Amino acid sequence: MPDTTLTSDPSHDAPGEPADDAAGYYTPGDPIRDTKAPEGPISERWQTRKFEARLVNPSNRRKLDVIIVGTGLAGGAAAATLGEAGYNVKSFCYQDSPRRAHSIAAQGGINAAKNYKEDGDSVHRLFYDTVKGGDYRSRESNVYRLAEVSTNIIDQCVAQGVPFAREYGGLLDNRSFGGVQVSRTFYARGQTGQQLLIGAYQAMERQVAAGTVEQFTRHEMLELIVVDGKARGIIARDLVTGEIETHLADVVVLASGGYGNVFFLSTNAMGSNVTASWRAHRKGAYMANPCYTQIHPTCIPVTGTHQSKLTLMSESLRNDGRIWVPKKQSDCEKDPRDIPEEDRDYYLERIYPSFGNLVPRDIASRAAKNVCDEGRGVGPAVDGVRRGVYLDFSAAIERLGRDGIEEKYDNLFDMYARITGENPYEVPMRIYPAVHYVMGGLWVDYDLQSTIPGLFVTGEANFSDHGANRLGASALMQGLADGYFVLPHTIRDYLADGPFEKIDENHPAVVEARKSVEDRVAHFLNTQGTRSVDSYHRELGNIMWEYCGMERTEDGLKKAIDLIRTLKDDFWRNVKVLGTADTLNQSLEKAGRVADFLELGELMCIDALNRRESCGGHFRAESQTEDGEALRHDDQFAYVAAWEFAGDGEAPVLHKEDLAYTAIEMKQRSYK
Questions:
Q1: In the chain, N or C: fewer CB atoms in 10 Å?
Q2: What mean pLDDT comes out for the span 277-296?
Q3: Could you read off the pLDDT of 168-215 as tens digits, one per residue?
Q4: What whole-number distance in Å separates Cα of residue 380 and Cα of residue 375?
Q5: Strands, E, within 79-175: which ranges?
Q6: Is 361 a catalytic residue?
Q7: Phi, psi angle pair for 111, to nearest 5°
Q8: Which of 232, 237, 318, 361 is catalytic?
């Protein structure tokens, strides 16, 4: 077992100073602070900020233009709400319809502190569970606001007609999710994200019909326009015609989702990317906690090198499914139905008796990795290792009957059967952790504004609410909270300074942004190398998963940085992009996205190297307790790492935002 005490390395630390593994890889910068967060009792801060935020009268709203990039729950809800308020909104998505945004893939549910089960839930408990689940690396004020507005989300969605499940008396039903001991998750079978997205989409389409929202589908943002230090528009490419377009506005909102596809294999949609956020980062928006990646414990395991993505099985399955592996390696090849109860290791129930199968995602994921590393994994061997554990519903079927399980999970069971060819009603599912969500993202203040004035960031694209680990059923909650109830109140404080000076396409900053996009496209098409874009993406993903995945070490992260830099240099010299710029060209689309992933991957490794502690799903082998649990170091790392882009070839600049807790005591997590 590695020593849990952190010692200084004389090669890069002065005597008596804490270890800084990333010394030489970055430049220290000035501290950063969230100046918009109100003072006072935490339960009053959001009401205070809403009152203090300046208003925009209705006649002035008609003179203000807002660009929103992304049409998932955060972007769709924001477009609908700002359009309803009377602003002129331009909505962009690279999909052929806003309804295909990746929010549609969320399955299990959405949290809200309604306490319908009368089991002790409250706004404060949801706040506490979220901060604890994030391993005390999230912002206290932001998380309390999220918990506070959660109840409004459910009322809004019910009014829109979202078909939440109901119990026998007609009230909305709830189920449990990992990391909590109450039932607060509202759901629509395993289609919650889809149903919520349809609600937001319908609200947005109402504004399209009213003329307040203009919709641009199959358009990808490729650059942010910054004029006099303020965000004033975007450069986008029409993915069908290839036309490079300039779109100007008074304010820009990024709701473009997360960057989990930096790992190549993830549960994200194939098109999910970091380009919108990364282009903003290169223009001055700080990237916060980029190494904070969520590994989801219930995904269908990898079956070979032919795969280009992984499939999520909803965490809600852990309500009724029991997770186990054989106690003996010799039983791993057996049919699970032939392994008697006494030879099964229900390891989560054994190690964490208080929470059992409902421990948080990071705990469940690492426990699954540990038993598979011991040689007790199940399923087919890939590269000589069995990476799978059983998720068994036999006891639940016996207790509730098959009809009861079908009512709760039928579409999920059907999806599993179609993908694997196995019947989960008869044979236990096999699951294994996979990259799912990112807690890192662009740094924002309490108003959701980035370090670039006029650039607001919502949903998974920002960093603010989840800390080092997102509790299940919180992604939908944050997306809708930001879009419906937070951004519309905070963005008006910025827009109250309008109407703003108009700029046109001939402004030097606009011309420069457009030319940078055109030059980038031309480079990809003219390089005529020998390697495909996908081959670079897959190699990057392997590096990231191996060295910046579920377990990290100083040596491994330094190796990863060297490998990524070498790969990046080769990419710019040797990538081959087929086709032309004036038509639909998916190879060209991927090239731009992978170029940004390569830069992001390097920063993620530097961020992970700097944070020599284990927190959430980010396990540094050098920092663990005697029984192998994650060991935080609050005296050294209780801060948000906000990274500034310093220029190509230059070391990034690290700005630290200290985290202070006034309503919760910071302590080591325990789910035992």
A1: N
A2: 97
A3: 888 999 998 888 889 999 999 889 999 999 999 999 999 999 999 999
A4: 13
A5: 88-92, 110-111
A6: yes
A7: -80, 150
A8: 361
